[in-house]
Amino acid sequence: MKAIIIDDERLARDELRDLLRAHPEIEIIGEAAHNNEARTLIYQKRPDVIFLDIQMPGADGFTLLESLPPPIPLVVFITAHSQHAPQAFRVDAVDYLLKPVDPNELQTTIRRLIEKINYLQTTHSTDPNKERRLNQEDTIFVRDGDRCWFVPVKKIRLAECVGNYCRIHFDTHHPLILSSLSAFADRLDPRLFICTSRSKIINIQHITSTSINADGVITAKLTDGNIVTFSRRAATLFRRTHCLKPTSAQDSPHQHSHQGQTHELQRLSTKQLGDPNNRII
């Protein structure tokens, strides 16, 4: 796997490079001493993993991760400051190593990296030089104030517009990210996410039920209990990818009366949902 070492101390980079020579599965394709250099190198080289020092002059490693467009490389934090451990684990990095790096701990880290890479390769295959949409196995780095997360895309229930920014909802968190909803939507897989209006996008895997009222308004209930209402245009597109199938009252527990006729919203296959033209934004 291709790796980049990011550390402002040349001696620390040299020591890590020497340790990694014992692991031929790791190919060092570049080094960087600060965030700007690292960002350019990551964009040009597209590494599988970065060995990242947290504490660097100017901007720290978390700031670098926040500035990278998703999907980001796998991350191994390396630092001399143990107080950063809780934050590093909060963002769910592959591993966290303290300086000076212990060869046995590094070996364990390499094993975890290999397991993670193998898993990702079995879930999807793509050209690394071609920008692609995020699938459910990808993660995005999110920073809100002093809190940081690596968020699996499949955990995102809802994304909504907040001015020029976007708020995402996952688990019990709802941080604000430095991206417009439109830009964020452009990176999402339309087989997984649908627009309910110009201001909201929902993950179909987090829909527990859908309904239509007497006025033809469609709503969806999410796994956290949140009710999202579709705009008229979004409802029209939703009907193209979901059947409104008449059914008798005894056929389904999720029925909704509409002008004397009962309707049930039926989800179509993933392939049918994946039409990129079915977008609002």
Any key phrases for this structure?
elongated, 281 residues, 18 strands, alpha+beta, 5-stranded antiparallel sheet, 8 helices, 5-stranded parallel sheet, disordered C terminus
Summarize the amount of helix as a percent range: 25-40%
Number of helices: 8
Radius of gyration: 22 Å
What structural category arises from helix and sheet content? alpha+beta
What oligomerization state is this entry in? single chain
Largest sheet: 5 strands, parallel
Query: Order of strands across the biggest sheet?
Result: 2-1-3-4-5
> Which ranges are low-confidence, i.e. pLDDT below 50, for 5 or more consecutive residues?
84-91, 125-130, 246-281
Total number of strands: 18
Shape verdict = elongated
Give the DSSP E fraction (strand runs of 2 or more residues): 25-35%
What string, H for helix and E for strand, traces the elements in order?
EHEHEHEHEHEEEEEHEEEEEHEEEH
Can you put this structure into words, describing what you see?
The protein has helices at 10-20, 35-45, 61-67, 85-90, 103-123, 181-186, 232-241, 270-273, and strands at 2-6, 27-32, 49-53, 74-79, 95-98, 139-144, 147-152, 156-162, 165-170, 176-177, 193-197, 200-203, 207-212, 218-222, 227-229, 242-246, 256-258, 261-267. The longest helix has 21 residues, at 103-123. It starts with a strand and ends in an 8-residue tail after the last helix. With 281 residues, it is of the alpha+beta class. The strands form five sheets. A five-stranded parallel sheet has the order 2-1-3-4-5, with helices on both faces. A five-stranded antiparallel sheet has the order 10-9-8-12-11. β11 (193-197) and β12 (200-203) form a beta hairpin. It is 27% helix and 32% strand. Mean pLDDT is 79; it is low at 84-91, 125-130 and 246-281.
